[in-house]
Design a protein that fits this description.
Number of domains of chain A: 2
Shape of chain A: globular
Distance between the termini of chain A: 51 Å
Distance between the termini of chain B: 57 Å
Keywords (chain A): 2Fe-2S, Iron, Iron-sulfur, Metal-binding, Oxidoreductase
GO molecular function (chain B): iron ion binding; oxidoreductase activity
Protein name (chain A): Carbon-monoxide dehydrogenase small subunit
Mean pLDDT of chain B: 95
Largest sheet of chain A: 5 strands, mixed
Low-confidence stretches of chain B: 1-18
Organism (chain A): Kitasatospora cineracea
Order of helices and strands of chain A: EEHEEEHHHH
Radius of gyration of chain A: 16 Å
Strand content of chain B: 25-35%
CATH class of the largest domain in chain A: Alpha Beta
Strand order of the largest sheet of chain A: 2-1-5-3-4
Helix content of chain B: 25-40%
Structural class of chain B: alpha+beta
Low-confidence stretches of chain A: none
Helix content of chain A: 25-40%
Number of strands of chain B: 32
Oligomer: heterodimer
Largest sheet of chain B: 7 strands, mixed
CATH architecture of the largest domain in chain A: Roll
Strand order of the largest sheet of chain B: 4-8-2-15-12-13-14
GO molecular function (chain A): 2 iron, 2 sulfur cluster binding; metal ion binding; oxidoreductase activity
Chain lengths: 162, 786
């Protein structure tokens, strides 16, 4: 089948898609967006998290056909038009929250969604929001630092009272 | 290669930061920006427009004779290009890290659940999976050999490798053993010297490395008849060394380039899909990509050895250790992998960082029909640490002593002898580490008045509002060797080039080091900046075009490849300065390179590097070998077997819901001596990550194997700690330089994984009063509902 949808604001089209293919497979292997990662392909690790119509989902659990005509935003879409890192991306780099980095794309999307909903989450809120994203390298401490840093910068930029 | 495959080259990163980002600073990762943009090319991201997908047929039985394999139906599936069995292997059929006992594809029998029997290459991964299901295999299913008793009685239960089989040996089902005796050993007379004796039996479950990036890679057949493999691995050269004879190719025709690695932790030390992808590529003449699904990853790599241990410790009434007696039985599974070296570590480190006058040890690894076990972070020291630290707590209780004081009273220090007779000839601040971890502030006590139930055991499941929650605190310390031991001539190679690019002096560092996430690329750039006084450093992609870097394991890469980069950079500096001396007649011997200039301490700035170099480039390649070690004596375990020791101490605070048996680690504190922190940010990250894997082993992680069959090969059923399971991990680092190591550094990555598990179990014991002799501790152990 042919699937057409919007990926990071651009129209994309994939031909000869087998009905069983996931959105993750289509993104990674057919439309040249390998940023979303394939760690478990079972919805357990969160590495493949993307926005689907503005809602974070595990793209491995979305059948390709389900995205027909819809909007997908991946980690590749978090940077600015000029390639400048987004606020959450920069915070992960600055905090040393990236080691092997395989979990990073999913964590970035999930963190982006968290801070959009709540720019000043408590530590427990952060842990709850990111509990679906496994990381095997960092021990999560620096990920916590990164989210706190992103939160502080976001609040500073947007003038949210501390 | 298409543009997208070349994407791997993007991993070549220019580091353009100030030279304050030399050693001791914490410059950011050179690959960090690519990784947060989703542009870093991991091995599973490799792509070629003409590529096929490979997959393997795996055995559903842990032990069976293969009576026949019929691939004819699989070959008829449209889109299938090849179906291969061991008969299609052109060269040697067996390989292995230490003992070549593993067939690249099963021959006549299978020895573990999930062993690869046949390969398929097809135009779509689903086509390949469907074709695999059409391969018909007739098995004669045999009763698997899975327990210690069965393994040690081959006359009754049989052999995993029959004595007449290829690569079999004289030991029956014992893969390797190591004994150790020091002092008077452990005799009745020695026992009589102790006022208090405690003993215990301990068990460690099978842990998995569970790196997130699945085994994957792309094999591209080359015009010269060779093959290029883009691969996630820990050691490019040892992969090639095992692969080439199987592919029947000379080494130089098997070229490996490191693709992005999504974690390793020992699980990529053995081959997984390397040979398989290359066989399919060479057979079809097309590029072949293999990406394991998570279940295949659990079947496709070795795990941490499960262990059964028996310990006996004796001490005087005032707490001085008199003797320790230990037997450690490691289940190595179907193939040897790194089992011999793991046994050596368990035996030589198995009594912990303590001075014990009389010691006896017997460590063995068994062949069984369970999954193969090999390298995992902590490598034999982890299992033993759970045993000896449990014993120290038990002894403290029997003596009525504080467990930290008992440890400090017996702690090794510089100048002491290990039970192997090896003197500790570098700082060993074990007592100080314990004191520091004890002195760090405790988290506030549980406050039922102002409680967020999400922080309790059971967390989001809302299973408690504070009732039935008991807090406990536990301490532990551990010891780990750094680098390869027992006489292995461990070395690493680095090539450093200095040239002028765009009017700036730029250093290029080329090694075959596998960057698996640990941050070696950052550290190499820091070393080059420090030694050459430049700001810009380019890290060349790791490949087999430069000499071996050895393995990214054993906490050795900063020591070994970092040391090689240092040597090569020093050689470049020497050549540059010699050029200056020759050209300008400099007489000073106090020259150094700082801020892009040649500087004399007495005469000031002499010349910018750019002007001295001109259009020339200086390139030097150096190998770094560590000081020699010797194998342990087989019977006595004596010998200077280890290059360096590293120590970490932990304190765990836990809350336990004693009604439901749920554990929440509230805080896990670590203090570690790192000799010299080349990059403090990375060092702390390694320690926190290591502690978290230890937490996993303590309370949740286990590959459940029943009658040789794996029951939980998925992230649904094999649980690793989430951010909710993981507490704050405050870290303090000590920097007591090791006089034998480059910059005085000490390997960092493994020590916390060795030491942290026992502290968590100790804390749970303190909270519950349960004996807890098995890890992972499960709810049923705490509620007596086994």
């Amino acid at each position: 089948m042919r699937v057409t949808f919007s990926a990071n604001g651009k129209p994309v089209e994939a031909d000869d898609v087998w009905e069983g293919e996931s959105l993750l497979y289509v993104l990674r292997e057919r439309v040249g967006l390998p940023g979303s990662k394939n760690a478990c392909e079972q919805g357990e690790c969160g590495s493949c998290t993307v926005y689907l119509d503005g809602v974070p989902v595990c793209s491995c659990l979305v059948a390709a056909g389900q995205v027909q005509g819809r909007e997908v935003r991946t980690v590749e879409g978090l940077a600015g038009q000029d390639g400048e890192l987004g606020l959450v991306q920069q915070a992960f780099v600055d905090a040393g929250a990236v080691q092997c980095g395989f979990c990073t794309p999913g964590l970035l999307v999930q963190t982006d969604a968290l801070l959009a909903a709540d720019p000043q989450p408590s530590d427990t809120d952060i842990r709850e929001a990111l509990s679906g994203n496994l990381c095997r390298c960092t021990g999560y401490e620096k990920i916590m630092d990164a989210v706190r840093l992103a939160s502080a910068r976001k609040c500073s930029v947007e003038g949210v009272a501390k | 290669m298409t543009a997208r495959t070349i994407q791997g080259q993007k991993n070549l990163q220019k580091i353009n930061q100030a030279s304050k980002d030399g050693i001791g600073g914490s410059p950011l990762r050179p690959d960090g920006t690519l990784k947060v943009k989703g542009e870093f090319a991991y091995s599973s991201d490799m792509w070629h427009e003409d590529m096929l997908w490979g997959t393997a047929l795996r055995s559903p039985h842990p032990r069976a004779n293969i009576l026949s394999v019929d691939v004819s139906e699989a070959l008829k599936v449209p889109g299938v290009y090849a179906v291969l069995t061991h008969e299609d292997i052109p060269g040697e059929k067996y390989y292995g890290l230490e003992i070549a006992d593993q067939p690249a594809l099963a021959i006549d029998k299978v020895r573990y659940h999930g062993e690869a029997i046949a390969l398929v290459a097809a135009d779509h991964p689903e086509t390949a999976r469907r074709a695999v299901k059409k391969i018909k295999v007739e098995y004669e299913v045999l009763t698997p050999i899975t327990t210690e008793e069965q393994c040690l009685d081959p006359e009754t239960h049989g052999y995993v490798h029959e004595p007449h089989e290829y690569r079999s040996h004289a030991y029956g089902n014992i893969c390797h053993e190591q004994k150790l005796v020091s002092g008077l050993g452990v005799t009745d007379e020695v026992r009589a010297l102790a006022d208090v004796v405690v003993s215990g039996e301990y068990e460690v479950g099978m842990q998995d490395q569970a790196f997130l990036g699945p085994e994957s890679g792309l094999a591209v057949p080359a015009e010269d008849g060779g093959v290029d493999l883009y691969i996630a691995t820990q050691w490019l050269h040892v992969d090639r060394q095992q692969m080439a004879p199987v592919l029947d190719l000379p080494l130089e025709k098997v070229r490996l380039t490191l693709a992005g690695v999504g974690g390793a932790f020992g699980g990529r030390e053995d081959l997984s899909m390397q040979i398989h992808a290359c066989l399919l590529a060479l057979h079809t003449g097309k590029p072949v990509k293999i990406v394991y699904a998570r279940d295949e990853s659990f079947f496709g790599h070795v795990h941490r050895h499960p262990a059964k241990m028996r310990y006996e410790h004796g001490a005087t009434r005032d707490g001085k250790l008199v003797f320790a007696d230990c037997r450690i039985v490691l289940d190595g599974g179907a193939y040897a992998s790194a089992s011999p070296a793991v046994v050596g570590n368990a035996a030589s480190l198995g009594h912990g960082p303590y001075v014990i006058p009389n010691v006896r040890m017997h460590a063995i690894a068994l062949y069984s029909n369970n999954p193969s076990c090999g390298a995992m972070r902590g490598f034999g020291a982890v299992q033993a640490a759970f045993g000896y630290e449990s014993q120290l707590d038990k002894l403290a209780e029997a003596l009525g002593m504080d467990p930290v004081e008992l440890r400090q009273l017996n702690a090794v220090t510089q100048g002491d002898l290990m039970p192997t007779g090896q003197p500790i000839d570098a700082p060993a601040p074990v007592a100080e580490l314990l004191q520091r971890v004890k002195d760090m502030p405790l988290p506030p006590p549980l406050d039922l008045e102002h409680l967020d139930v999400r922080t309790l055991p059971g967390a989001l499941s809302n299973t408690s509002h504070g009732e039935g929650i008991v807090r406990g605190v536990g301490y532990s310390v551990g010891i780990k060797n750094v680098g390869f031991s027992e006489g292995f001539d461990d070395y690493s190679t680095a090539r450093v080039r200095l040239e002028v690019i765009g009017g700036e002096p730029v250093a290029m560092v080329h090694t075959a080091m596998a960057e698996v996430g640990q941050g070696g690329v950052t550290v190499h750039a820091q070393i080059a900046r420090t030694e050459l006084g430049v700001e810009q450093v380019t890290i060349h992609p790791a490949n087999t075009e430069v000499g071996s870097a050895g393995s990214t394991s054993a906490s050795r890469q900063t020591y070994m490849t970092g040391g090689a980069v240092k040597l090569a950079a020093e050689a470049v500096r020497h050549e540059l300065l010699e050029r200056g001396r020759h050209r300008y007649g400099w007489r000073q011997d106090d020259l150094s390179l700082v801020g892009g200039k040649v500087v004399s301490a007495s005469a000031g700035v002499l010349i910018p590097i750019v002007d001295l170099l001109g259009d020339d480039a200086i390139e030097q390649t150096r190998e770094h070998h560590h000081r020699p070690t010797v194998p342990f004596d087989k019977e006595t375990g004596q010998g200077f077997g280890h290059v360096q020791y590293t120590f970490c101490a932990n304190r765990a605070v836990v809350d336990v819901d004693v009604e439901l048996g749920l554990v929440k680690v509230v805080e896990l504190t670590a203090v570690q001596d790192v000799g010299k922190a080349l990059n403090p940010l990375s060092v702390v990250g390694q320690i926190q990550g290591g502690c978290t894997q230890a937490l996993g082993l303590a309370v949740m992680e286990e590959i459940v194997v029943k009658d040789g069959k794996v029951r939980n090969a998925s992230f649904t059923d094999y649980l690793i700690p989430t951010i909710l399971d993981t507490p704050p991990i405050p870290v303090q680092i000590l920097e007591l330089p090791d006089p034998h190591a480059p910059y005085g550094l000490r390997g960092v990555g493994e020590a916390p994984t060795v030491s942290a598990t026992p502290s968590i179990v100790a804390a749970i014991r303190q909270a519950t009063g349960k004996a807890l002799n098995r890890i992972p501790v499960r709810p049923e152990h705490l509620t007596d509902t086994l």
